[in-house]
Amino acid sequence: MSKKDREKTMKMRVSFDLDEVLFVSPADCETEPPLPFPLNHIFPDRLRRGTRYLIKDLQLQGFEVWIYTSSFRSERYIRTLFRLYGLSLDGVVNAQRHQREVQAGHKEIKPSKLPCHYYISLHVDDEALVASYGRKYGFNVYQLHTRDRDWALKVMDRAREIRLRRQGR
């Protein structure tokens, strides 16, 4: 099977950064309801409103959902927090994993995120620098703006557009 054929049959992956993308301050964005006490103290991070709907919808439509963050939060913390909101993740890349699997063995400094290393089709991030890495290294980035209320619909539209392009439609 050619590389192009493999890409068409492979499940599409959509990844999200955490800080200022899915984890937001209630002072800056609308958020999902906090976890009940005492979990809200163990897991103080708040999810952006629409996160639960978007992740469930992406997965129902056959996309894998990953987290790709430069945060040093543990994979266990990330997976548990999302599970408490009723969500399962298909993959997690945190700073430790990125250093071990992407940067290791390379003398030149790699970008802080390199979604193409994990066959991620679309990465959602708020950083302009990550968007510029996408152009330089050839991966798709949707740059999220903090106060965009229609962000979930825009991400879903972009994921569908990339899938259709991959399928040659």
Helix and strand topology:
Elements: H1 3-9, E1 13-16, H2 39-42, H3 51-60, E2 64-68, H4 75-84, E3 91-93, H5 95-103, E4 122-125, H6 128-137, E5 141-143, H7 151-166
Parallel strand pairs: 1-2, 1-4, 2-3, 4-5
Helix pairs in contact: 3-7
Detailed description of the structure:
This protein is α/β, with parallel strands linked by helices. The chain has one domain (3-166): HAD superfamily/HAD-like (Rossmann fold). The protein contains seven helices and five strands. It has helices spanning 3-9, 39-42, 51-60, 75-84, 95-103, 128-137, 151-166; strands spanning 13-16, 64-68, 91-93, 122-125, 141-143. A five-stranded parallel β-sheet has the order 3-2-1-4-5, sandwiched between helices. Helix 3 packs parallel to helix 7. The chain is globular and about 45 Å long. The model has no long low-confidence stretch (mean pLDDT 93).
